[in-house]
Write a structure and sequence with these properties.
This protein is α+β, with helices and mostly antiparallel strands. It folds into four domains: 38 residues, no CATH class; 184 residues, Cytochrome Bc1 Complex, Chain A, domain 1 (2-Layer Sandwich), CATH 3.30.830; 209 residues, 2-Layer Sandwich (Cytochrome Bc1 Complex, Chain A, domain 1), CATH 3.30.830; 206 residues, Cytochrome Bc1 Complex, Chain A, domain 1, CATH 3.30.830.10. The protein is 42% helix and 18% strand. It contains 25 helices and 17 strands. The strands form three sheets. Strands 6-7-11-8-10-9 form a six-stranded mixed β-sheet, with helices on both faces. Helix 3 runs antiparallel to helix 4, helix 5 packs across helix 10 and helix 17 crosses helix 24.
Length: 704
Amino acid sequence: YYGAANAVLVIAGDIDAAAAREKVEAYFGDIPAGPPLTRATANAPKLAVNKSEIMYDRVPQVKIDRNWVAPGRTTRDAVLLTLAAEVLGGGKTSRLYQTLVYEKELATSATASMQDQELLSFYSVTVDPKTGADPAEVEQEMAAVLSEFLASGPTRTELERAKTSIEASVLRGLEKVGGFGGKAVTLAEGALYADDPGFISKQLDWLNEATPQEVLTAARDVMNAGYYQLTVLPFPEYSTDASAIDRSKGLPAVTSSPDLIFPKIEEGALNNGIKVVVANRPTVPVVNISMQFDAGYAADSVEGGKLGVASFAGAMLDEGTKRRSALQIAEEVETLGATLAADSNLDMTSVTMSSLRENLAKSLDLMADVIQNPAFDTTEMEKLRARWIAGIAQEKASPVQLALRILPPLIYGENHAYGVPFTGSGTVDSINSLSRDDLTNFHRTWLRPDNATIFVTGDATLASIKPQLERAFGGWRAPSGEIPAKNIARVDRPARGKVIIVDKPGSPQSLILAGHVAPPTGAPNNIALTAMNDILGGQFSARVNMNLREDKGWAYGAYTFFQNARGQRPYLVYAPVQTDKTKESLSELVSELNAFKSTRPATPTELKRTVDNNTRSLPGTYETSGDLLGSLVNSNRFGRPWDYPTTLKGQYENLSLGDIASAANEVVHPESLIWVIVGDRESIEAGVRSLDLGEIEIMSASDL
């Protein structure tokens, strides 16, 4: 099977066909063709009866997963079934979501999907019942939705919305050269599976030609057969009684790496003062727009605010406005082939829209309505609150998320704006206490035109987009009150560390997460700090991972990393290790950190590797207009010039070992680390205490 005649090679990117052929013939022309092969075929089996099984796992929520055998990925029916899945479970406007999540509030998630494979595919319907809901009732309601669909099929409106949504997703994926959904993979899949590199065009034709009756017929052919259903249930809560070319030269050398080509950045302002930043990159007819507000999790507790309000208020923006209901917003987004999302990080809150160029005016009207006129409807708020609290329970069930909730207040102090759970979700108590007034106050205080910047990338220029932005946002006026200040004052590292053991009885591994403050992301020497961390623990080949994973085999992965922030950011150490090696792993981590500053500083080989890795990956880092948008909003957040990415190659190439040593001395302080260890206290406490890492505090995972 490993012969040239059975292989597909795609070269995509900045290269012409003649040059590509020359290189392929040089490097691959001597590979034997191999024996002739026949392509396997298969007929889709139809189960005569339904089969259901139940399994138990350590999960906080029930999951129902129903599956049918479906035709292979190159068939027209595969496209028709993808459309059926989009109508049934593709988003907020889908039938399963509307019935199970929105109307009856029996589930937190309800989806349908086609898992395309070469010979046969899987058609799946997956529902996550809400905590406390009867799985049997949820299954009954799910079956009713499926039966109704199989009786009458999709409406024309549903089908057109599904077509637009799927095609828009394909177009956005094709903007990339590589990666899943990019040009290279799409061409390779077409050649490999359909003997046609351009097979995506045929699939899109099938998509756009599909009729409601054809979709219904394909769905009936699959879903009227037997299915296999797996229901995953949480473990019951039990208690126990106490008891005791010349290939010998290796790969061709990379002689140089190109300079990063960045589009011209245009700046302007609307009549009401909102700043506008535009980067034109018309590779596909898509425009990306992000309105960024100086808010984020750090605004949660300002002037009596409540933890989680920034993220919760952002999530409520598309749950209804004064003109549109939540489902109308979702339907309009899908009809336009757009995406719309609100997001917060430590420092910023953003609302981001991606629109097809031809639908930009309508997309902007929707975006402006969502930002300026949220209804904060109390009924929608209660629905979101229930799902939100379930999400916090999921975070507490994950050792990593649990540690990210505990650590920040210990690093910054409870009165610091960054002393909040880094998940941004708040606490159960704070979310339960949120009122509509809390959301309207947050919106009025922080989401306002004098606190906003609009970023635009893609198929637009300042001249083409500004009039449309004026129509959408030019009439928005700021309230009279001042924008409050967030407390991101400098804090000192503790002279001595501290250890928090979060008891999780029976855990097979210990999650180690430790941290202390470090310079902001916008620090002048950030590239030296980044390169230093890459060598110490930021990459797979870094020292920490090579020690605990590759040498000792105690961890699947171990890393050090920075969490980005405008103010002092945390420097974190992360290692999930097997329980019986918790003490030894902690000792090795401390040893690696200390040695990096003393007996084993960075080597020339390590520095060259991280410089090469970071400079050669730059063009791919900013490949899409979405990547470009992320660069602009980050530059705004961290106070950098818009063309900051174009300086990175030079900054990396000018690094010295002295720069790395200075960065390590500035940032790496194992004696000051606050350690959070989530694991089985009974098994690990004695060993942890013997290391004398600092005062030890015990918490129970069930109490957090």
